[in-house]
Amino acid sequence: MAATNNKQNKRSNALVLAEAVIVSYSAYLANFLVVSFLEVDSPSFLKLAANISLMTFLVLVSSLSVGLYEAKLRETFRGIIRRIFVSLALTYFVVEVITSTFMEELRMHAYFLPVAAGVVILSLVTFRYFTNRLGLLGLGRTRIVVIGAGERASIIEKRMRRDVDRLGFELLGFIPIPGDNREDGIRNERLVHVKIDDNFRNYVIDNEIDEIIIACDQRRGTLPIEVLFDCRLRGVEITDLLDFMERETGQIVVNLMYPSWVVYSNGFNSQNYLRDILEYGINACVALFVMFFTWPFMLLTAVIIYLDDGRRTGTSVFYKQERVGLNGKLFKIIKFRSMRPDAEKDGAKWASQNDNRVTRIGHFIRKYRIDELPQLMNVLRGEMAFIGPRPERPEFVEQLIREIPYYNQRHNVKPGLAGWAQLNYPYGASVEDSMEKLKFDLYYVKHQSLLLDMLIFIRTVEVVLFGKGR
Q: Fewer CB in 10 Å around end: N or C, the chain?
């Protein structure tokens, strides 16, 4: 597993490094074109180097913020082009602000920035095209084989059907073994009929297998420990199905979990001392920072909601609702009202995708997550963190705890305004959807860290920019 993660990191690092070189050279080429065709004086070396460095850094950060460096980016090539344009638009804006307001001595010729942006877009689009189509920067995809072809193994077939789900590895096939539930097992994948005995060692060596995934339905009496032990000594990774799915999909398959896996698994650590001390301060600072830039939109939203139906019905523009927080403690969440005043006259209901209770302005503010902005006050009160599982209503929590195993474990951390589940599974309106979101929430609970929080915060920009809210 460590070797596979290392290869994935190498691929990501290679992509970032390659695009840094491309952006730097494109900015240098843009300056050459401006100087040559407009016959203007060339800037000093230090001034040019500073502009190239600034632009390269901002393009990489902007690309990260719109998800261009996500290993599991499920996007068409047209979508990638759109994200590149957004990334360069953000870079253009920030460079313009910096060089015209804070560091005027770095300001280049008026045509430098637009020419540089155009050349960078053309270069990155071309590079991404050949990277995606020709499989460049693969850096040696991991070759894996799965022991098991029954019900447990079928989760790979069901959850990782697309080529984009398998960018980091090459799946040679599934090996059926005694005890597998073949009736509910593999349907369309390649089956490898080889006995797990001494011949299996030869199969592993001959096919240059890097990793073996254990996904059999029954382990007791079916797994040849000595053979697997020998493979492990030869440097072949032996990985449990749950660990494999966690690594490749960023979620924990709750319905396949068993107590011993939780007991021996890495993660699920309590927050460390430094995080405990800094958590509220960091969350409060981030909330104030976001509020500083979004208060005009919040004010405008409140006015529009009031004019839309608040003035007529006398209902507040805000909506307060009881939610379940850290360790099951209840608190009042604050949101902009996006539904009619009588939306729950018949009791609590799940929100649906085309809910007729949502007002005209409500559809817009829910799509772009504007309705969530008042929750910054919950963050300042310490009831919520900026990053964490979304808080649920107590009426639904009682039902979900009864129907979904391990659901209550998501309350081991503070609920958040943005979360890992929202980035990976943006809509939920049923028990089944809650089960899918729990897989991502438990992944966050297990791997929570300041670094993961920063990644989620940056990626949440993508949700706002592309309107992928509920």
A: N
